[in-house]
Each structure stands twice: as C-alpha cells, then as structure tokens.
C-alpha cells in the first residue's frame, strides 16, 4: 500500500498512533527511567513540578517503585497550584502507608487546606487525609470529616461521606458512635449527591442501625429519584430493610400469598393455578430472603411453608401503612431507570412488598433490559428466572421476548431456553416448539443439546403435548444414531444423550402408555454408539423390565445382547449393564429364570475380570447381594421365605424402587435477594445481608431530634473523641520526646480566678504553680499536637525560652482599657462619587436589639457640598431575595428561629442634611456570609446609588467571658485541624511616648497589643501572663488570651498572642486561633495578623 511513497502498513500504523498521542500525556510512559524528575520537583516553576509529578504517577501506573522521591514530593504539598496539589495528593495516597513518618510531616498542610476557600482543595485534602490508613492520625481524620460534613460545598460533604467507611475500616471502636452520628447527619443532607454517598457509608458502617433511617425516612424516599444511580441502588436496599424491620412483610404481597391466596383474584385472570403460581417455591423464596446462613444450614426440610413462620403481628397492610405506600410509590418510577441495576433494585422492592395485582408492573421494565449489553442481559435473566419459577404466568404472555438471538452468548442462550421451558403454555407451545426446531439445527451442538433438554422439560410440564414431542425426539435419535462417528464432532454426542434423556423424562409420567416407545429405544441399542445414551437406554431396560406383556418376553434376547457386547462397552455402560442384569434376574419369570441366571453369572464373571476397579467392585457387591438368587436352580415359589434374609430385604429396597423420591427443590433450595451478586453466583457472596427479621426494630417517635440537636450532639461526640484520643503509643512518640512543649498552657491554676480589672488587686500576681515535667503526662497531653502541628508556638523558641517554660508565671492586670478603644472607620461612599455626600461606617461592640445574628454599625453622613441634601436613606438591595435555605447554609448553624428576620433593619431617614452638617445613624445588619459584602441602595436627592457594606470579621464575633481554666480546657479540646497560627511583626509599642517617662515596659506592651486587638475586633480579654524569670528588657513568653463566640453559630473561638523579642525593639507575635469553624478561623487569623502589622500614630 502506497509503496511508491516508501510507506508500509506498519509505518502507517505507527504514524497513526503518533497522531493520536498529540495533545495527551502518553509521552510520559516512553522514558520510565528518566533521571530529570528530581530537578523538576525542586524547580521554581509550577509547570515543571506538574510535569515531574505526572511522570512519577506514570511510573507508579507501570509498577515502578518511586518512593525514594517521597521527601521531595511532600515539600510540594504547600504549593499554591491546585494542579500540583492534586498530583501530590495522589502520590501521597499511594505511599503514605509505606512511609508513615514522612507522611505525618504533611498533615499540617492538609489541615490548612481543609480551610482553603476552594472547595476542590478542601475535598482533596480530606480525601488524602482519610486515605492515609494510620491509626495515629485517625482522631484528626475523624475531626476533619466531622467538620467537612457541615461544609457549605456539596462536593466536600460528599467526600466526607465517602471518607467515613475508610475510618470505619480502621476499627476505631471508641469512635464508632461519633462515626454513626455523622452518617445520620449526612443522611439528613438536602443534597441528593451527599445522600447517595451517605447511603453507601450507612451500608458499610451500620447497616442495622435503623434509627438513623427512621428519623429521615420520608425525606429519603422523596429525594430517592434525584440521587445518583449507584447511590439509588444502596438507598433502595436500605429503605427496604428498614420497612421490613419496622413493619414486616405485606399481607397482600406475593411473599405471604399463602394467606387467603384464592381470595385475592390472582388466579382468575391467569387460568390454571398450577401454571400460575408455585406456592411451595414462593414460600421457600420468602424464607431464603429472610434467613441467614446459619438458619439455612440448619434447615433440613425446604418445603416448609412460610405461612406458619409469620405471626399476624409481624405483617402489615399496604392500605394501612403509610411507610410501605411511600416506598412503593417512590420506587415505581425507577423501574424505567437508565441503569439496569437500579431497575433490578426497584423490581426487587415491588416483588417483595407490592400487592399481587401490582407485581405485574415489573415485567415490562425487566424485559426492556434484555435489549441491553450481554453482561447486563445475563444478570437480568438470572433474576427473571427466579420470578418465573415462582410465578410462570407473569412472563408467559411475553414468551417471544425470550427467543434466541444469534448474537447472544451461550450463558444467555441457556437461560433463555430455561425460561421458555418454564413459561410455555398450551397456547404458546406450538410457537416455542417451531423455534426449538431451528435451534436444534444450530452449528453450536452444545446449544442444540440444551434445546433438546428444554423440549423434554416442556413435555413434562404440559401433559397434552408429549406425543408431538416424542415423535420428534425419536426421529432425532434415529437421525443422530446413523450420523456416523459422533465422538469426532464436538458436542454432537450431547444432542443424542439429551434426546434419550428427554424421552426418558416423558416416559416417567405414564410408562404404561409409552410401552411401544420403550421398545423402539431397546431396538435402537445396536445403532446408538454414544456411551452415555446407551447407558440411559440400558437403565430403562432394568427399570421397565416387568412393564406390560411384550417387554418381559424380550428380556432374554436383550440380556444376551448386553452380555455379548459387555467387553467392548465403556465403563459407565458396563456399570448399567450390571445393574440391569440384577434387576432382570430379580423380576424374571419362571420359564426364563434359568436362562437369565446363566447370562447374569456370565456377565458377573466378565465384570470380576474387568480392568476398571469400579466395575469389579460393583460386580462383587451385586454378586454377594444376589447370592440367594444365583444359588437357586428354580425360582422359589414361596417368595416370603427368601425375603427373610437381610440381603433379600436390601435387594427389594434397592432394586424394587421403594426409596423415597428426591424432591427437585433440594437440587437448588437457596435463593438470594433480587439484584444481589449472590443470586448470580448462587452462594452467599462477601457482604451479603439477608432481610432483617420482620418487626425486629421498634422505632420510638420521641427519639427524633431536630437537625441542630443532632449536629450539636455529633460535635460533642467529636470533642469527646479528641479528648480521649490525644495519646499516642510510646513507639510512635519516642523520636519526638526531645521536642519542646508550650508550658504556659498548663501554668495557670485556680489562683487566676480573681478579676483582672479589680483596682484593689496588685499590678502583678505571682503564681507558684510550675508546669509538670513528668514525661508521661506531657506525652499524653501534647505529643499528638506536637506531632501534627508544624507551626507550634514553641517550635521556634530559643533554648533559654524553653527552659523558662518550666518556671512560674505572673498575671498582669492592665486595668480598664475599654474607654481608650477607638474602632476603625471605613468609607462607604466618598464625596467624589456621592456629589459631596461622604458616608463612613464603624462597627460597634453593642449587642443588637433585633436578633443575635445582627451586627450594629454606626453610619456617619457628612455633607461636603454647598447644597443641602434631602431624603437620605439606606435600603437593602437584595431584600427577600435570599432564600432561607441558602442563608442557613452560608451562615452555618444559626438558630432557626431567626430565619425570618430581615437582613437590614430600616434606618431612620435623614430628611435634610445642610452643607457642612453631619449626622449619625445606627443600622443593624445581618450578613449572609463573613466574606460577602452586603449590597445596599443609597437614596438621596431622588437618586439611587449602589454601595457595598463590607463585613469586618472582628465584629462578627461576640465577647465570651470565661476563666483561664475554662479557656485552657476548651483549648485542649481543639487541637490539630482546629488550631491555626501565624507570625507577624508589632511596632506600636516603640512609638509609645510613655515608655520614656518611666512607665513599666511590660505593661505598655500589653496595653498596646490589647488596644490594637480590641480596636479591630469584639473580644474579651481573659488573661495576660508573663514568665517571672524574664529580664527587664526581655518580653519573650508574654502571652495574652482573648475569647469570643462566632455570632452566627455561638461556637467558641479562642485567640492566644505570644510575644518574642526585646522590649525596646520590634516584637515578633505568634497569633494562634482555636476554633471548630475552620474557614472562619483562618480568615480571622489573617485579619488579626494584618492589622497587628499596621502602624498607628499613638497607642494612647
């Protein structure tokens, strides 16, 4: 091809492959041992780092071990590029368990990313943190999941639900209640995506905790159609199990059809009862759905009815039970879902719970699935088979849907043949048999043999068609018998064997009326060459040797033929010849007894010399058993005398066909829930759970809690879990024993309960309580925090400072500084844009009279123009536009009783503002989010000007008055991801002129810091502590503590400011915040660090 251009098919193929690779990352797999990865990881360009990480992931995909790059990869976790972060997270997930110590170094970055404004980054951090299967970080991972379960972003909450099973796999028994509580919170989520993931978590963690489902049952049913498809499957199963556990099975359903079956009108529409319904099989199916493996193994009889197993108290009615009605209504539309598994799950609910007259609605959706892929078609057929075995009339009118297609796989063909044999009726059998005639001619002879077996099953079920089937089967036997060497054609012998076995199945119904058919089979023995077919015919000789008048007279001739051909027969045929010989001898008539006895003795002699040990053993066994017959020259006229021996009785039971028949149900007496893997593999697959016992769960209505109550309980559980998990094993913490710890957190005791603002108290109070130096106590309280907090406040302290941490502390009283606080002013409108009108606003620390969610803002109006300004007013631009649900999501856990409070309390209108005049007005504002500005409309002189009122994070909190002990206790419950710190510089104290007048330097520093904080935020000063051992010029170790609560949720927020440096020089401050609201806390931390750096004209 194209030889004139020098190209071949191979070169063209390579060129085509090269074109397809353009614009992709396929080139990363070409040089797996590229040595340029390490320099790229240390590059200052994000694109090169991204290229290196992609190469590492390509090597991992090819099976290479690249764990030696772990330290360099961990370094890049702090990158600002989201693409690099994502690739780093994928790498860490793969190698975290192999390199646990290095992985712990990146935990602090994960905690920071959990507060990132980008929800994708928060979700990636949570996925990675939960995917690192280390017990030492499990408490922190649980706290992170608890935090993200309340995240405003849907994707983050979904990732939190997906992380719960990973934490559960760590077998954290002490945290199991908190994990289950988080599952309940996520099940109550308003987002369908979160609910689907929560259903998967519920199935993995606590599938029998139906109390969580009961609290949200109706909501889950309503949201079910909107859940993603794979979540729908799990949620449907969960709802079904809950309804069965709480209310039991439905009396009108198929599962309890034995209760007054004839009265429900099911048979009147479908005709014959035996063809419409198999009561024993239905009772067996319902029992298998509910019983566990132990009960199944202990069950000895499979034909017990389920009717006796259920009390009337364990059943319910569709008309009287609202929960059952809702479940059936919400799953009915899902019967036409695009996902085959969803259709099967919904059909399973209808099959188990729906009334008999409504079960038919599952038929057409299931038949529609037969047009899907081969794999789906096979799974659907496996489930349809169970339905058809119990109620054949459901699918009988649709027999044409089960006709074989040439493209069907063999397994699908086999199931379709079984279906056709199950649902065949007298009206459809003619069409089915014509279809079977074509199948028998199929080149796939194994499939043809299965078709012949299906014909036998149809003839056995329908007593009116055996003659038609027998004629066709006998013709097939004659045709196959003269077809030559069948063993050389793959599967050809199976057709003949199945034909003979099908004939034998039909004969069993009425052997006497088919005597001529049996004789035809006997006469065809010489032409049948297949061993299995010959063995079946020989078996029929022994079974029907005394049938009618013709067959007994043929026994001598047939027996002689079997003895003559014994040497050349196959082993399985020889075994049947021995059995038949014994049966013929037992039932022999007087005139033929001697001849038959000699023939049997000859056959036994041949059997004793056979090369096959099975044949020899069978011969000796039969010869010993029939010794009383073989020893007689004449048959005993008095048969009673011969049966007195044990051998005679055994022979009568074995060969006289007096053994109990084996029930066909025992061949397959185990069924599994529709749509489950176990129903496909026909055994209990790992993870399979049967339905719970009916009415085994009692739901109490008073157990239901409001959303806020459940969230509050979950938060308390998480806090308690952190307290109980703040210890690590000695092996894990030994290498960190030499690290520093923050002694000031344990230095205050009950002596600090005195009021710091009391004028009667001395300026400085000495505390004699030193920090405990017991290594075990320090390890139990601080080791985990030091392990995971990279920016611990003591990590950068000098050795002298660390030594002083073990000394006494002094409490400094700075008096009342409230009168000197000057809140910062912001500009809302400048005179240039406002035609001479200038508007400034200041946040106040006053408590709003409207609601706890409002912030008081003082607005200053100034007229800088030469004209009067009239009708000045501020209005909310988005009034009543924000829905309560969205508002509730942004605000957090605000009290639901304030949802109807307006966003802006209307201010008093300024009728006229003269030139140079100023006026103040108080407005009360409710911000939707702590970072989003409020859009207002300013009206003046008939104009409308849009303005933005930006929130100040420092005033979205309220003071929280607590003691030092309470501060430390709350701080100890908020370690790890709830603790964030940042360093900044502070210079205001240097410009304080009072320092030159002999005023105490420490007191001046404390006052400067306190005034700076309180002028920019609404906080409560808890305490000021100073190490006693400090020199007069050293302010290192000075610590100020502030406390507050978030305005919208009343969650505690603690602030600690630690000083480092000389009194007369610029100071370094470490600001630390402890708060459960990660996003709010990090934003406030940045706000405090920024205004601490700002310089002011004077601290006074």
Chart the SSEs and their pairings.
Elements: H1 9-20, H2 37-41, H3 46-61, H4 70-75, H5 82-95, H6 100-104, H7 107-113, H8 119-131, H9 138-148, H10 154-169, H11 176-187, H12 192-205, H13 210-215, H14 217-223, H15 229-247, E1 249-250, H16 273-276, H17 279-290, H18 293-298, E2 315-316, H19 322-331, H20 340-353, H21 363-369, H22 374-390, H23 410-423, H24 429-440, H25 445-461, H26 466-481, H27 492-509, H28 515-523, H29 531-543, H30 551-564, H31 571-586, H32 590-608, H33 613-625, H34 627-630, H35 639-642, H36 646-655, H37 677-681, H38 707-724, H39 730-733, E3 764-767, H40 775-788, H41 799-804, E4 809-812, E5 825-829, E6 837-847, E7 855-863, E8 869-876, H42 884-891, E9 904-905, E10 910-913, E11 918-925, E12 934-940, E13 943-949, E14 957-959, H43 964-972, E15 979-986, H44 1001-1014, E16 1020-1027, E17 1039-1046, E18 1052-1060, E19 1067-1075, H45 1078-1093
Parallel strand pairs: 1-2
Antiparallel strand pairs: 3-4, 4-16, 5-6, 6-7, 7-11, 8-10, 8-12, 9-11, 12-13, 14-17, 15-19, 16-17, 17-18, 18-19
Helix pairs in contact: 3-5, 5-8, 7-8, 8-9, 8-10, 9-10, 9-38, 10-11, 10-12, 11-12, 11-38, 12-15, 14-19, 15-19, 15-20, 19-20, 20-22, 22-23, 23-25, 24-25, 25-27, 26-27, 27-29, 29-31, 30-32, 31-32, 31-33, 32-33
């Amino acid at each position: 091809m194209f030889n004139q251009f020098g190209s071949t098919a191979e070169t063209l193929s390579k060129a085509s492959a090269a074109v397809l690779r353009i614009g992709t990352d396929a080139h990363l797999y070409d040089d797996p041992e590229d040595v340029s990865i390490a320099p790229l990881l240390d590059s200052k360009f994000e694109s090169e780092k991204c290229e290196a990480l992609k190469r590492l992931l390509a090597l991992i995909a090819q099976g290479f071990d690249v764990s030696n790059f772990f330290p360099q990869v961990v370094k890049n976790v702090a990158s600002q590029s989201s693409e690099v972060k994502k690739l780093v997270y994928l790498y860490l997930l793969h190698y975290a368990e192999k390199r646990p110590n290095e992985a712990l170094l990146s935990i602090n970055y994960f905690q920071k990313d959990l507060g990132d404004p980008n929800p994708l980054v928060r979700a990636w951090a949570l996925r990675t943190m939960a995917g690192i299967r280390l017990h030492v970080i499990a408490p922190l991972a649980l706290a992170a999941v608890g935090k993200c379960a309340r995240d405003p972003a849907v994707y983050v909450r979904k990732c939190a639900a997906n992380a719960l099973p990973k934490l559960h796999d760590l077998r954290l028994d002490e945290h199991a209640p908190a994990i289950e509580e988080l599952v309940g919170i996520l099940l109550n989520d308003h987002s369908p995506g979160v609910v689907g993931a929560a259903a998967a978590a519920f199935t993995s963690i606590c599938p029998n905790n139906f109390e969580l489902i009961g609290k949200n049952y109706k909501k889950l049913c309503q949201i079910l159609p909107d859940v993603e498809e794979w979540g729908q499957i799990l949620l449907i199963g969960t709802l079904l199990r809950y309804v069965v556990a709480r209310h039991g099975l439905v009396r009108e359903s198929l599962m309890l059809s034995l209760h007054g079956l004839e009265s429900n009108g099911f048979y009147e529409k479908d005709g014959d009862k035996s063809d419409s319904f198999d009561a024993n099989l239905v009772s067996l199916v319902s029992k298998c759905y509910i019983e566990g493996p132990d009960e199944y193994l202990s069950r000895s009889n499979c034909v017990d009815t389920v009717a006796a197993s259920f009390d009337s108290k364990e059943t319910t009615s569709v008309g009287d039970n609202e929960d059952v009605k809702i479940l059936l209504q919400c799953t009915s539309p899902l019967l036409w879902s695009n996902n085959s598994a969803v259709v099967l799950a919904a059909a399973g609910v209808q099959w188990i719970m729906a009334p008999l007259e409504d079960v038919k609605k599952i038929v057409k959706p299931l038949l529609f699935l037969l047009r899907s892929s081969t794999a789906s078609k096979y799974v659907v057929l496996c489930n349809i088979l169970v339905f058809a075995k119990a109620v054949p009339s459901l699918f009988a009118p649709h027999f044409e849907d089960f006709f074989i297609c040439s493209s069907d796989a063999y397994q699908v063909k086999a199931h379709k043949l079984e279906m056709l044999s199950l649902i065949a009726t007298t009206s459809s059998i003619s069409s089915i048999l014509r279809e079977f005639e074509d199948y028998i001619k199929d080149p796939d002879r194994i499939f043809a043999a299965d078709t012949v077996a299906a014909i036998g099953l149809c003839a056995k079920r329908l007593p009116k068609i055996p003659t038609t089937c027998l004629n066709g089967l006998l013709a097939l036997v004659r045709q196959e018998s003269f077809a030559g060497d069948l063993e050389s054609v793959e599967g050809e012998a199976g057709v003949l064997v199945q034909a003979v076995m099908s004939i034998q199945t039909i004969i069993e119904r009425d052997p006497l009326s088919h005597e001529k058919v049996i004789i035809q089979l006997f006469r065809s023995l010489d032409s049948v060459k297949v061993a299995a077919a010959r063995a079946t015919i020989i078996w029929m000789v022994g079974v029907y040797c005394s049938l009618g008048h013709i067959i007994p007279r043929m026994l001598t001739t047939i027996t002689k033929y079997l003895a003559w051909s014994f040497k050349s027969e196959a082993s399985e045929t020889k075994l049947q010849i021995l059995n038949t010989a014994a049966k013929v001898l037992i039932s022999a008539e007087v005139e033929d007894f001697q001849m038959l006895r000699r023939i049997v003795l000859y056959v036994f002699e041949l059997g004793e010399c056979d090369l096959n040990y099975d044949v020899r053993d069978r011969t000796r066994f039969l010869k010993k058993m029939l010794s009383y017959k073989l020893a007689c020259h004449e048959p005993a006229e008095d048969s009673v005398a011969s049966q007195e021996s044990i051998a005679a009785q055994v022979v009568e039971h074995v060969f006289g066909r007096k053994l109990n028949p084996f029930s066909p149900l025992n061949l397959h007496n185990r069924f599994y829930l529709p749509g489950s893997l176990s129903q496909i593999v026909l055994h209990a697959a790992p993870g399979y759970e049967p339905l719970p016992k009916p009415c085994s769960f009692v739901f109490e209505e008073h157990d239901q809690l409001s959303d806020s109550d459940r969230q509050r309980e979950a938060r308390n559980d998480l806090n308690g879990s952190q307290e109980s998990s703040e210890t690590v094993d000695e092996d894990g913490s030994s290498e960190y024993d030499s690290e520093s710890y923050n002694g000031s957190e344990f230095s205050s005791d009950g002596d600090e309960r005195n009021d710091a603002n009391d004028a009667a108290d001395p300026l400085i109070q000495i505390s004699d309580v030193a920090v405990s130096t017991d290594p075990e106590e320090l390890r139990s309280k601080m080791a985990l925090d030091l392990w995971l907090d990279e920016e611990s406040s003591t990590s950068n302290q000098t050795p002298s400072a660390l030594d002083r941490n073990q000394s006494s502390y002094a409490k400094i009283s700075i008096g009342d500084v409230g009168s000197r606080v000057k809140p910062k002013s912001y500009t809302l409108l400048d005179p240039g844009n406002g035609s001479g009108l200038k508007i400034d606003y200041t946040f106040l620390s006053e408590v709003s009279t409207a609601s706890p969610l409002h912030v008081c803002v003082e607005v200053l109006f100034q007229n800088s123009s030469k004209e009067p300004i009239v009708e000045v007013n501020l209005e909310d631009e988005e009034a009543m536009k924000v829905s309560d649900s969205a508002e509730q999501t942004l605000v957090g856990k605000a009290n639901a009783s304030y949802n109807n409070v307006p966003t802006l309390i209307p201010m008093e209108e300024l009728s006229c503002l003269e030139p140079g005049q100023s006026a103040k007005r108080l407005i009360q504002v409710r911000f939707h989010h702590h970072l989003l500005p409020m859009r207002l409309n300013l009206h003046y002189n008939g104009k409308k000007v849009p303005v933005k009122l930006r929130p100040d994070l420092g005033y979205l909190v309220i003071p929280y008055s607590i003691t030092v002990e309470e501060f430390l206790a709350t701080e100890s419950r908020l370690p790890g991801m709830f603790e964030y710190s940042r360093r900044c510089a502070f210079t205001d104290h240097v410009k304080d002129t009072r320092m030159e007048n002999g005023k105490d330097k420490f007191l001046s520093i404390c006052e400067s810091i306190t005034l700076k904080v309180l002028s920019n935020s609404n906080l409560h000063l808890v305490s000021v502590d100073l190490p006693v051992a400090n020199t007069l010029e050293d302010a290192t170790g000075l610590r100020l503590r502030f406390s507050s609560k978030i305005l919208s949720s009343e969650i505690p927020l603690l602030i600690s400011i630690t000083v480092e440096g000389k009194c007369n020089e610029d100071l370094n401050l470490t600001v630390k915040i402890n708060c459960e609201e990660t996003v709010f806390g990090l934003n406030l931390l940045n706000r405090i660090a920024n205004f601490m750096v700002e310089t002011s004209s004077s601290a006074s």
